Amino acid sequence: MTHEPVQRPAPDGRGVGGNRKTGSDRKTDRGRKADGEREVASPTDGSDAGSPADAPDAGASGPSRRLTTREAADLLGVKPETVYAYVSRGQLTSRRTPGGRGSTLDAEQVEALARRTGRREPADATAAGDLVFRTGLTLIEPDRYFFRGVDATELARHYGFEVVAEWIWTGELRPGVRFGAAPDSLAAARRTAAALPRHSSSTDRLRAAVAAAAAADPLRFDLSAQGVLDCARNLVPTLVGALPDAAARPSAVGLGPADATDPPMEREGADEAGGTGASLARRLWPKLSTRPVDAASLNVLDTALGLLADHDLAASTLAARIAASTHAHPYAVVSAGLGVLEGPLHGAASGPAHRMLAEVVDRGSAAPVVADHLRAGRSVPGLGHRLYAGEDPRARLLFALLEDVPQAEPALAAARDVVTTTARHTPLRANIDLALAVLSVSSGMAAEAGETVFAVSRTVGWIAHAMEEYTERPLRMRPSGQYCGPRPPRPLPTAPGGGE
Q1: What value does the CA radius of gyration of the chain take, rounded to a whole number of Å?
Q2: Whose CA is closest to 439, among 252, 245, 161?
Q3: Residue-level pLDDT, tens digit, the chain, 500 residues
Q4: What are the beta bridge partners of residue 138?
């Protein structure tokens, strides 16, 4: 993850370093019915909030003249997101606007950077050769993001993962919806995933499961809207069902097995865990942890799935859209996304955060762990995001919900310690990887659990983007390479030692 500058959350926001909520607050946040659904709240929040780019200028002239993020971006000829990257790398210094929600930058610093880098005139993105995608799915602002115009964190807070998925796919709210896997697809996916070596990762198994499910589906080439929706509603539970239970894999790295000091928990039955009446979060839990599930932990997992369902044109989503532009079927689109997701700078970024957090819990302090990372020239995992000026809104919500999980307190305290310790070196805030690490470490999950949650959830977004791309002109993404090799023509090469 690319590191970004600090921005405090809104006064009512809950961050990893914030105060604990009251009991009544926690009850309101939990709001989950017995069948796994949250209390219904109409997703009509579409109000706008200010962003750093819109903040008023803090100064008019002189040495202390300040620029808004938008003004700095215009002066440098870059996007506001690039300005945040300059701040995170220490090339620019930002300052909070007194009484406001944005930040300002020193004009002289910005002008000096413009002289060093060479100001680039803003140009039309298409004319500049950049790919531009029209999408009605996700809008990202500096401090929050939206699914089809609805605040995504509020949607995920009040509704389960399947409801969020349906909203992203169709723009319709279907409280209580459940997805079921077709028996043939599920059987093929399970056999194929089980045939892999024991040490194979969950992402390895998911890739194999997608290919097997595709081969078992004779209707996979139906790219009509209904055909793709039917495929999506079958594929997501098929992926979950194809994963082996955590008890069948090498032991998870966490805080140790549950013991008599753990709070009372609800143990799932076999039918509950695998039946179509159970939520996908409930079916996924035993794939991630050997511990029985409690309502608060299940709420965190379900919310995390909803929050991660889409995030605009992340690298894996771009790959998925390119595949869809060739009219590849949805299974191939998901395969393309999974291939990119496994990169350590994308979906696999939660693994290093998990290992770091487990070490902090074990050593009792973040200071030596952070020092080890910096000494080795590594960034501290779980901090900063190139699209958010402050704390990742997804992390902010998960941290608030994790306060309702008693066994998560040691990992939460460790996460707070990491943020506080690192703030002495660089102004970075927690991102979704650190929040997933708190869940995985405190639940006895493996380090790859966050990546698994990410992959299952983001399948929803990949398919939603494919549905958009299927309506566009096919093969519209054909950039030209800028050749930088030897100038032709060159003589025909001969093999070493060869003769006439």
Answers
A1: 24
A2: 252
A3: 443 333 333 334 445 544 444 444 444 444 443 344 444 333 433 333 333 333 333 333 445 688 888 888 888 888 888 888 788 777 888 887 776 667 888 888 888 888 766 544 444 444 334 567 889 999 999 999 999 999 999 999 999 999 999 999 999 999 999 999 999 999 999 999 999 999 999 999 999 999 999 999 999 999 999 999 999 999 999 999 999 999 886 544 444 433 333 333 333 333 334 455 899 999 999 999 999 999 999 999 999 999 999 999 999 999 999 999 999 999 999 999 999 988 777 777 889 999 999 999 999 999 999 999 999 998 899 998 989 988 999 999 999 999 999 999 999 999 999 999 998 877 889 999 999 999 999 999 999 999 999 999 999 999 999 999 999 989 888 888 889 999 999 999 998 875 55
A4: 147
Question: How many residues does the structure list for the chain?
Answer: 500
- Collect all residues with Cβ–Cβ distance below 8 Å to 87 and sequence separation of at least 6: 4, 5, 93, 94, 105
Please give the Cα distance from 96 to 101 (Å, whole number). 7
